[in-house]
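Input chain follows. Return structure tokens only.
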Amino acid sequence: MGKLYRPGGPAQGEECAVRLTRFAVEMTAPDGEIITMRFEGLAGKLAGYEDAYVVLSAPTEGGSLDLWVRREFMGELAEYEPSFSPDFRLTFARLRSKQRTGSVLRFLSPVVALLAVIGLAWFVFGGGLASIVVAGIPVSVEEAIGAAGLDELTASETPCASPEVVGAVQDVLSELVAQRKGSGYTFEVTVLQSPDVNAFAVPGGKLFVYSGLLELTEDPSELAAVLGHEMEHILGRHTLRRLVHRVGIGVALGALIGDSSELVVTLGALAGDLGALEFGRDHERAADVVGLELLTGAGFDPAAAPRFFGKLAESQGETGSALESAAAFLSTHPSGAERVQRLTGLTDALQTPAAPRMHELDWASIRGGCSAQ
């Protein structure tokens, strides 16, 4: 059962029976009318207390059809994922990966009181308060944190001196950035001359790519898959959150009351370790999904994402392989078979552009142009 809101219908909605077909959601209204929302053009979001409901929406004459169903309905909906439109497939993946908000305890029995204490400790030291602190740090402070660590990063690394390579990599990033206008970040990418296969993001919008990773890319789309993934670590503030966890909530709280100097100095000093920064499973999944959105929106080949990460996955456990140097990237970016399978599923219904963006470049010379110095 669900609740249907439609143009001309009751303001409080209508209880309706819901069933799924291969290509649509069908609702039977109280008057017996059958209303169909096809997967093509379907949108969705979480709503209600603790995101307990999924709202499926589709445009219709005179307004919008909105169906509210319990969140458990997503389990049934997942069985029809192969029939989803590309846009709704990405939306559905994001809905499934979204965290539930923390619950509010209402009863004061001894057991619940103990749970309240445990929950408060989690809020203060690990979860809720950290989210509030990270969300409250201005982008300007985040940029200062990234800038404070640049000297340490570049002191031990050699930037690529080839203007052709640097220009091509920055052009790929610019195409992706155009999909997130108004984000507040100024994205820049630096290519570092190193055989290591790695890439990482610094708070504030700075991305770093090692020439070893660039050499493994077959075309600009594969590089775009990596850069889009790293962009979401900045847009979603995953990098900033991990650094805040490292130094403790107390230091970060100082930035919220107007004194950001200690935060900038402390987090900037950790920049040298950003290449080895590990993210949680949810952050990695979100970066995969958003990276794929950016990749597709910019006109690159969406199949490049599972293709490139699949190459890295194949290198796990191999010895003497040319991909063996991918260990650094694999240690912080899980590239297992499950991840590749998920990315493949997301891209199956996406159309490859007839002429993927920037594929006219002589990529063989670009990808090896830095290593040849």
